[in-house]
Design a protein that fits this description.
Phosphorylase Kinase, domain 1, nucleotide-binding, Transferase(Phosphotransferase), domain 1, globular, transferase, 2 domains, ATP-binding, Kinase-like_dom_sf, two-stranded antiparallel ribbon
Length: 323
């Protein structure tokens, strides 16, 4: 690959016992599984090869997992490797038992501002790390942040991640989180991630995203207008940082200035946060999910198990056999 990243490790599907579904996505589902040799529980993400080929996403999927396999950060989900059969590509990921930040946020409405700052700081730390490797993430949202049993976050789903030296032009992301430069198709870079952090900080503090609407086109119009209304209860320091992040002018957006991530990390909303203790996971956590056992899935939604199988590919038609 042109990115110069190492290939992920090939694993054996027969080494895993597969259990219930933890989540579903466009190409398949994520299930709990156990490594029979080590007894360790993992998340097994199955991707339908026929669907990936039909939607011309082969390079995309290989790219996503090559990037993830080359990352090591305390707040990024670990990727152990992949295995495959004629129907599916299976990605073996760390099982993060506390469920999605999305589910937790919906259950309590909104976070107090210190709690939101604790999570926001972890995302800032992740973006600083990814950007140092010229990787942009492009898909921040509460559904892609999992809460580990120790109360710290793990970022997952690198489907839109890309190694970019300058600018890229693909339209991707979640409507409410799209930066204006993506909508205007001007070419975008690392600055889009800092915009999405602004949206997340707003959503954690307010319980709703700033450009909310039922209609995606109306959301896009609101994003381009750039008018952000803050509830009265919104913390003034959080408001200041959000205003510095949700700036359409890239020459003024925090995270994209000459000091890079330092402008975000040194903002007064994070107060006297010790960033080293944060990455060492030595700070007290505001919330610890209840996890009763290594295979406890009670923090995830229940999904009906699907019996529909994807068609098997002939070896000649299978682009992943060489991977």
């Amino acid at each position: 690959m042109s990115t110069g990243l190492a290939k992920p490790k090939k694993l054996k599907l027969t080494d895993y016992e597969v259990f219930q579904t933890l989540g579903t996505g466009s190409f398949g589902r994520v299930k709990l599984a156990r490594n029979k040799q080590t007894n360790k529980y993992v998340a097994l993400k199955s991707l339908k090869k026929a669907e990936i080929i039909r939607l011309k996403q082969v390079d995309h999927v290989i790219n996503e997992n090559t990037i993830l396999g080359n990352l090591q950060h305390p707040f990024v989900v670990t990727f152990e490797g992949f295995c495959q059969d004629p129907r599916y590509l299976y990605l073996v990921l760390e099982f993060v038992s506390g469920g999605e930040l999305f589910t937790y946020l919906r259950s309590i409405g909104r976070l107090d501002t210190q709690h939101a700052a604790f999570y926001g700081a972890q995302v800032a730390s992740i973006f600083e790390y990814l950007h140092s490797k010229n990787i942009i993430y492009r898909d921040l949202k509460p559904e892609n942040l999992l809460i580990a049993d120790d109360g710290y976050l793990k970022l997952t789903d690198f489907g839109f991640a890309k190694v970019v030296e300058g600018r890229t032009y693909t339209l991707c992301g979640t409507p409410e989180y799209l930066a204006p430069e993506i909508l205007l198709n001007k070419g975008h870079g690392k600055a889009v991630d800092w915009w999405t952090l602004g949206i997340l900080i707003y959503e954690m503090n307010a319980g709703i995203d700033p450009f909310s609407d039922e209609d995606p086109m109306a959301i896009y119009q609101k994003i381009l207008k750039g008018k952000v209304k803050f509830p009265k209860s919104f913390d003034k320091n959080a408001k200041s940082l959000v205003k510095h992040l949700l700036v359409a002018d890239l020459s003024k957006r925090y995270g994209n200035l000459k000091n890079g991530a330092a402008d975000v990390k040194n903002h007064r909303w994070f107060g006297n946060l010790d960033w080293n203790l944060l990455t060492q996971k030595k700070l007290p956590v505001p919330y610890k999910p209840v996890v009763k056992a290594p295979n406890d899935t009670s923090n995830f939604s229940s999904y009906p198990e699907s019996d529909t199988q994807s068609p098997a590919l002939k070896p000649a038609d299978d682009p992943f056999l060489e991977w």
